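Model it.
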Amino acid sequence: MSIRISKTLEKYKLWFFIGIPIIIVGILLDMAIKDLAFWVFEVKQREPFELLKGILRFTYTENRGAAFSMLIGQRWLFVVLTVLALAFAVFAIVKEYVKGWFGVASLSLVLSGAIGNFIDRLIYGYVIDMFEPVFIDFAIFNVADIFLTVGGVCLAVYLLFFSAPEKREEIRE
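Modeled.
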């Protein structure tokens, strides 16, 4: 029994020491910033203000769709898609399709962002967004979106350049 547990711990040690902490910290940070935005704008009734002059404004909006408010009102579609994506991620973890610290960190960022927005959809029926680029006409986004985007780019790099069997050993631990 203890040998089996030891092998399991060894198999998933990067997930225990890198993946899970990234996911937990990402979710907590996302929730904290969303709560702050709600408190500043909905409770205190403050006006949006620039965090970085000419670059980034702190505001509050409720996004009832996906990126750029696409598919507004399709809450349950997003819930189902997120559950399927999370199930696929767990499958990829169990099957060890994602290995090494870079792969684990990348997928963990994606999972953190997906779970952060998933929590909003389940609780509120919409996603709270608060960061608005001032210098360009772009979507208002949140911390979970940042994690999803950065993690997605890193995961794409991992899958394209490091996940081939001959490359896996190079970035493993």
